[in-house]
Design goal:
Layout: H1 2-10, E1 16-17, E2 37-38, H2 49-63, E3 68-71, H3 76-85, E4 89-92, H4 106-115, E5 120-123, H5 126-134, E6 143-145, E7 167-171, H6 180-191, E8 197-201, H7 207-216, E9 223-227, H8 232-236, E10 241-244, H9 253-260, E11 265-268, H10 273-276, E12 285-286, H11 290-301, H12 307-318, H13 321-335
Parallel strand pairs: 1-2, 3-4, 4-5, 5-6, 7-8, 7-10, 8-9, 10-11, 11-12
Helix pairs in contact: 1-13, 2-3, 6-11, 9-12
């Protein structure tokens, strides 16, 4: 989503060749028609490590891009290949999967330390910046902290509150690391003390088990699974409190979107979330347990009404997409000798 937003912003100033490591290219629909883009075909998984590196290096020698951009550990083979091909490299690290949720894997630490030393690294969170500097021990001159930003006009506070009990909402893929089960259990604790509804926007393989979890806790009637939304800003307009129940995050866009929509946020204390939110939202930060998250939600339900407005002000001053665009484009231009 972030890459598509930046690519749309720069328009035809850059041309892109995009390779999806998992073969899924549905996100191409996020790109404007005016953006020059192609999706070259190359086998990304078959063969041994050595054969993949040789294949990727050959592809880079043939294509001769001005800059290779890779994202996260899943594309690390390309970082090896670009060293053989002599291609300048820009790497984006967004965060970690469940296997690195609680600690860094030594083999991956050593790999990143060795193969990324001569690459420029974009890190959207201060937590990741600390990891890249102190654990991966990458050169400071190669590290670029660029906070995520969003379209503040698109995600605007609603004018009038809806009728009925307060709605606690989340927008998330239904994957294990999002731990929506924790949110449903927290909601069951909240519901025993305060009338409320829970709306879960998003889809994924865990949906069936999560629906069963809501039923087993006796709150299925107050939990709505809304499915995927192509226009999440409309979903936020129906929330009174946004909830994040993840085990691992860095700088979640959903929290920024909720802040821009003027919502109080109840969230597990992961990544940069505590730094992102306004100081007034501090009672909404929770440890990674259903009870703690429930207490955070209850604190926001009974707290002052200005928390959401404070989050909106912080989004306006710190997390606009214009600031993010400027930082990324400056680095893109510099990487191809234009700045």
């Amino acid at each position: 989503m972030r890459f598509a937003a930046i690519a749309n912003h720069v328009g035809d100033a850059f041309a892109h060749s995009i390779i999806a490591m998992d073969g899924r290219t549905a996100a191409r629909d996020l790109l404007d028609a005016a953006v020059p883009v192609e999706f070259p075909k190359i086998e990304t998984r078959a063969g041994t490590f050595a054969s993949r590196i040789a294949r990727f290096a050959g592809f880079l020698r043939q294509m001769r891009p001005q800059r290779l951009m890779t994202s996260n550990w899943g594309s690390i083979d390309w970082a090896f290949a670009r060293a053989l091909a002599g291609t300048p490299h820009l790497h984006m690290e967004d965060g970690f999967g469940p296997e690195e949720r609680d600690h860094q894997l030594p083999r991956r630490v050593l790999t990143r330390r060795a193969i990324l030393r001569r690459s420029d690294i974009i890190l959207p969170s201060q937590t990741l910046l600390h990891i890249a500097s102190h654990i991966w021990r990458l050169p400071a001159r190669r590290l670029h902290h660029i906070a995520n930003g969003i379209d503040l006009a698109r995600f605007a506070p609603r004018a009038v509150r809806h009728e009925g009990p307060p709605v606690i909402g989340t927008v998330a893929a239904l994957r294990p690391e999002k731990n929506i089960g924790r949110l449903i259990e927290a909601f069951s604790i909240v519901r025993a003390q305060h009338p409320a509804r829970l709306v879960i926007v998003g889809d994924g393989a865990e949906r069936s088990s999560l629906e069963q979890r809501a039923a087993s806790l006796g709150v299925a009637g107050d939990v709505a699974f809304a499915g995927h939304s192509a226009a999440p800003q409309t979903a936020y307009a129906g929330f009174d409190i946004f909830a994040l129940s993840s085990d691992t995050e860095q700088m979640p866009l959903s929290v920024l979107e909720a802040m821009a929509c003027g919502l109080p946020v109840a969230a597990t204390d992961v990544g940069d979330v505590r730094w992102m939110l306004a100081e007034e939202n501090a009672p909404g930060i929770a440890a990674k347990s259903p009870r703690a998250l429930a207490d955070a939600i209850l604190a926001l339900l009974s707290g002052p009404c200005g928390i959401g407005a404070a989050n909106r002000r912080r989004a306006e001053t710190q997390f606009s997409d214009s600031a993010m665009f400027a930082a990324h484009v400056a680095l893109w231009n510099r990487s191809v000798g234009l700045g």
